[in-house]
Design brief:
Shape: elongated
Pfam families: YceI
Protein name: Polyisoprenoid-binding protein
Structural class: mainly beta
CATH architecture: Beta Barrel
Order of helices and strands: EEEEEEHEEEEE
Family: Belongs to the UPF0312 family.
Helix content: under 10%
Largest sheet: 8 strands, antiparallel, barrel
CATH class: Mainly Beta
Organism: Dietzia psychralcaliphila
Distance between the termini: 17 Å
Number of helices: 1
CATH topology: Lipocalin
Amino acid sequence: MTATLTDLTGTWNLDPTHTRLGFVTRHAMVTKVRGSFNDYTGKVTVPAEGVEGATAEVVINASSIDTRNADRDGHLKSNDFFDMENHPEITFHSTTISPNGSGGVDVTGDLTIKGTTKSVTIPFEFEGTATDPFGNLRAGFEGSTVINRSDFGLSWNAALETGGVLVSEKVTLEIELSAIKEA
């Protein structure tokens, strides 16, 4: 079953087993490092009036960061980056959601990382809906946006002897959502 944005009325919960909240950044100016957060909750509520009145919220357990390297993950959890002892959560609360003209939505909201809140806009493609074998109605969205990590107080870096820095300021947030409609 495929739907349009106008068919999404209701409350939708993120399915953490089929959703990816990821990121990618340059390392040593020559390669990319990818990671994700594996523990989070999220909900999107779409009123009968449509997506223009929708709200979205996500709460991420920052210590669930996973870059497939325990030493790097430990450094990211430290005060040099996320300071998880004092800032255990990363949050996003939408302020506006609107159709973007290409069949998807632009979600603008307040992203809070390490105690700093900035407005970000994430354009999402709507991938459609389907009923899974267990009778759950699912909706899929994919989106990405670029943020500057220093804007959120994640400013640690190291100079390279060849010039440049160890970690890029730019971080691309990569989001693949599978949401299940509440009965």
